[in-house]
Write a structure and sequence with these properties.
By secondary structure, the protein is mainly β. 0% of the residues lie in helices and 53% in strands. The protein contains no helices and eleven strands. 31% of the residues are buried.
Amino acid sequence: VQLQASGGGLVQAGDSLTLSCAASGQRLSMYVIGWFRQAPGKEREFLGSTMWSAGSPYYADSAKDRFTISRDRAKNTVYLKMNSLKSEDTAVYYCAAKWRTTSEYNLWGPGTLVTVSS
């Protein structure tokens, strides 16, 4: 499975932004897609995940109020919609994949930078 996150850019505080994670490869239905971010000088942070085939997304506590994960299986794309962006949301955002039965995300795509100006 290969992943490519896109949609980052420079936005104003309070804006909304939707990131895309395009996936390619076989047996996508067997994977879980997760969204992460890493801010300058900070550790990588898990935001949420969704199974490719079914079920509702799961969110980290830090993301559940303003972030929404959705998927479009026809386009092989998972989205991360972010609302009411704050300067502290400035980070490189990544999507990653793991096999449904494993705990570690081992497939990563290049990140996309989101910069929120206040």
